[in-house]
Amino acid sequence: MAEGFVNDRMRERWDAYSAGTHPTGYVHPLALQVLREIGIAHQGRSKGIEEIRDIPFDIVITVCDSAAEECPIWLGRGKIFHIGFPDPAKVSGSEVEILAAFRDVRDDIIREIPRILDQIENS
Length: 123
What we know:
The protein has about 120 residues and is mostly helical. The chain has helices at about 1-10, 30-35, 95-120; strands at about 60, 80. Helix 2 (about 30-35) packs across helix 3 (about 95-120). The longest helix has 27 residues, at about 95-120. The chain is globular, with a radius of gyration of 14 Å. The two termini are about 25 Å apart.
């Protein structure tokens, strides 16, 4: 969701790439749904960290929930920042509860990622 948000709403200043330590092979349908709810038609795909390791990033923001999974150690170039968001795909409950978890994470991304990127630009 972070990749979709940044590339749609902040594309004049930033390019985002998302990858995981255990890619599922697909972008979760509820992640795509909650992005569509705010007008973002994300066309990303599930990628592993090895696929982007050689890209010379200026900034790397890890968004994994440190309590729920291991964040990768970034061995490439770039300043590293961490913002832990819970993985909404791991939420159990009713359809309504799971969708609410995806919306909560989406809304947290909308608040936190621009705040971090603005701090970086202004420092």
